[in-house]
Fold this protein.
Amino acid sequence: GENVEQHPSTLSVQEGDSAVIKCTYSDSASNYFPWYKQELGKGPQLIIDIRSNVGEKKDQRIAVTLNKTAKHFSLHITETQPEDSAVYFCAASKPTDSWGKLQFGAGTQVVVTP
Amino acid sequence: NAGVTQTPKFQVLKTGQSMTLQCAQDMNHEYMSWYRQDPGMGLRLIHYSVGAGITDQGEVPNGYNVSRSTTEDFPLRLLSAAPSQTSVYFCASSGGERRAFFGQGTRLTVV
């Protein structure tokens, strides 16, 4: 089955700097890649997603890039703010999977220090 | 719009007890799923449903049971709780674009 690896497991950045989280997936059939943000004591919240027919997607300070050949995708957060501190999860899904059946990475704890 | 609602938020069980974790969504999504979250392991799929009356197993189904009698509700039953089932449980629902929306979670401790 699909295997998603996520790095790094922890990331500490200064406020205003950029943060990058990388994920690799094993199944070349995967074609949907969402990113979730989880704040302490809350459920994961979808922040951005990308499908395999595009290479990059941006939403304000957040962007995701996808390299299908290398089977990896990355989350980029620019101009980080303290409220960006959270655990971030990447995930992958195949078209043959039922809707929303996601394989998650292990998560990245992001700490933004003022 | 409440989205996905899970109850209870916290629960302590004794080994061998049974209980049901409730999940309800008001987005008219066909797809619902249950995940468990353990430290360092991300979220792992327990069971999922593609519509009322249809359920299937995910990655870690043992010890759990589900049913889907309505589009809105997808309860998760622990048949005989074990300490290995201590975890945080999340319910999610998805529409046709595969975007999954999660509830706030149930933190379960089995002693």
Observations:
- The radius of gyration of chain B is 13 Å.
- The interface with chain A takes residues 4, 30-31, 33, 35, 40-45, 48, 50, 56, 58-59, 90, 92-96, 98-105 of chain B (CB under 8 Å).
- Chain B has a mean pLDDT of 94.
- Residues 13 and 110 of chain B are 5 Å apart (CA to CA).
